[in-house]
Write a structure and sequence with these properties.
CATH superfamily of the largest domain: FAD/NAD(P)-binding domain
Structural class: alpha/beta
CATH class of the largest domain: Alpha Beta
Distance between the termini: 38 Å
Number of domains: 2
CATH architecture of the largest domain: 3-Layer(bba) Sandwich
Helix content: 25-40%
Strand content: 25-35%
Radius of gyration: 21 Å
Shape: globular
Order of helices and strands: EHEHEHEHEHEEHEEEEEEEEEHEEEHH
Length: 381
Amino acid sequence: MSNAQPRIAIIGAGVAGLSIGWRLAQRGIAVTLFERHEAGQGASHAAAGMLAACAEVEPGEEKLFALNRASQALWPQFAAELEHASGMAIDLRTEGSLVVALTADDRARLQHDLGLQQRLGLSLEWLSAAETRRREPHLSPGLVGAIFSPQDHQVDNRKVVAALRIAAERAGADVRTQAPVDRIAVEHGRAIGVVIAGELHRADVVVLAAGAWSRSIEGLPSEARPPVRPVKGQMLALRMDAERPLLRHVVWAPDVYLVPRHDGRLLVGATVEEKGFDPHLTAGAQLALLNAAWRALPGIEELAIAESWAGFRPGSRDDAPILGAGPIAGLVYATGHHRNGILLTPITAQTIAELIIDGRADPLIAPFGLDRFNRTAMAAE
């Protein structure tokens, strides 16, 4: 960019918007974030904070896997820097994750997956039932084994959001809440700012980081509107004894995951529902989560329910993020992270800030541009 410091408007103050804003403000860039409600109260608040690049990899996701692993590698330094900048702990935990098999069919499926994971060079290992229960003695006595993923960690996503806001504001970012964006202002094919309550806020670059709401922002032609939809997820939290928790590792079991927190909460998640922005909790979904959790960890039946909630993951057409520039000059995308928003926070902040400040598009995000959907549509014709 030119020597004059640019003005940046970021739509959305979740982990993507806040982390980008922090990185830009650290470089002395004038940045304003506009959030429709309160900062970090969307998918960033509803998430579980798992940094699971290894255990979740699936065939056909090699490019996304590379991005996920790059971001996972950044997390230790990112966490340390964020804690120093904000003055608060974000509880990065490094016990690793267990993917447990409760039946012989589960074991066959997991061992098949383990072959792919090991071919990718991951240091996952198969544990016997006895070894699994040695590490987590409260797991089901009938389990048949588990995959241990030593590099798949977790962080308290709600603390991350709070810390990012503090760090961004201390660096000079202006975070404006209760400020829904009516539209992105475009003139002569270039984004020139955002309109809020009828007032134009000019900017040299607009970053669209509004999560599941990204497609609903007005002002863009159809080819520039990101194909992002809300993917509803219901979750709940149980209350363990923080001094004697039932679980210490993140555990993936059939149809459920369990995430222990330092304060004694045990997160139980999550459904995947294509129901738009329906915010309601349902008895069936909560029952299914609790039943799946009980099969893996029978002791939960004595735990109190601390909280239950629903959130909206921003899912793109291929459930991979949309990152980088697009067909409108001055408009940058950082949305569509689906289930990987917390995991991808460091790499999103780094690559989008570099793109804005230095004009350099990191090769890691090249496969995730908006234009991939247009290419797919043309290829299908």
